[in-house]
């Protein structure tokens, strides 16, 4: 894909929140589009991946036991969502598969390409990492709220759920 298309996709993502125009163009040179067909697996359950993905269009299902008779969809991610941020940071295997729920386009940033910018462009790396931390913080906050809501529900039901 062309550089302008990558710049446009990156500009619309959470990764670009704090980037200057020059930094945006620099980072766009490090990312690449990937198009997925419905049902195509972006990252398999139990596999680690060195990419941080951003959904440009379409949707990805976070699915346990994908391809088995009893898959469980844990979450649906849509345009603008960051995908694989924790595995990108620490190389841990994915708890669930990332599966395209229809035609989906993502762009990916390899960990090594971001790390290569560290010495010459530390502010770009810092700002990308801040965007990742903000996303993880939002996920953690949402999970905490859901935990409280579930605890309240169980308490109100006197443990009968």
Plain-language structure description:
- This protein has 161 residues and is of the alpha+beta class.
- The protein contains five helices and eight strands; from the N terminus they run H-H-E-E-E-E-E-E-H-E-E-H-H.
- It has helices at 3-11, 21-28, 85-90, 111-116, 122-156, and strands spanning 31-36, 41-43, 51-57, 59-64, 72-78, 82-83, 97-100, 104-110.
- It has a four-stranded antiparallel sheet with strand order 1-8-3-6.
- Pfam families: cNMP_binding.
- This is Cyclic nucleotide-binding domain-containing protein.
- InterPro entries: cNMP-bd_dom, cNMP-bd_dom_sf, Env_Response_Regulators, RmlC-like_jellyroll.
Instruction: Estimate the global geometry from the Cα principal axes.
Output: globular
Helix coverage percent: 25-40%
CATH architecture: Sandwich
The DSSP helix count reads 5
Q: Output the CATH class name.
A: Mainly Beta
Structural class, please? Answer: alpha+beta
N-to-C series of helices and strands: HHEEEEEEHEEHH
Low-pLDDT segments, ≥5 res: none
Rg computed from alpha carbons, rounded to a whole number of angstroms:
18 Å
Q: Which fold does the CATH topology refer to?
A: Jelly Rolls
CATH superfamily: Jelly Rolls
Mean pLDDT comes to 92
Distance between the termini: 51 Å
Report the sheet with the most strands, covering strand number, pairing sense and barrel closure. 4 strands, antiparallel
Give me the side-by-side strand order of the main sheet: 1-8-3-6
What is the strand content?
25-35%
Beta-strand segment tally: 8
């Amino acid at each position: 894909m062309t550089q302008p298309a990558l710049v446009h996709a990156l500009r619309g993502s959470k990764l670009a929140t704090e980037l200057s125009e020059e930094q945006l163009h620099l980072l766009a040179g490090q990312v690449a589009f990937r198009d997925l067909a419905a049902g195509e697996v972006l990252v398999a359950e139990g596999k680690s991946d060195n990419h941080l993905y951003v959904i440009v269009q379409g949707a990805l299902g976070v699915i346990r036991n994908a391809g088995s008779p009893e898959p469980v969809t844990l979450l649906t991610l849509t345009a603008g969502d960051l995908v694989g941020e924790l595995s990108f940071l620490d190389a841990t295997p994915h708890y669930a598969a990332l599966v395209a729920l229809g035609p989906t386009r993502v762009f990916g940033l390899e960990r090594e390409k971001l790390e290569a910018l560290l010495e010459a462009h530390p502010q770009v790396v810092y700002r990308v990492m801040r965007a990742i931390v903000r996303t993880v913080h939002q996920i953690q906050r949402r999970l905490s709220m859901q935990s409280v809501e579930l605890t309240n529900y169980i308490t109100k039901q006197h443990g009968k759920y």
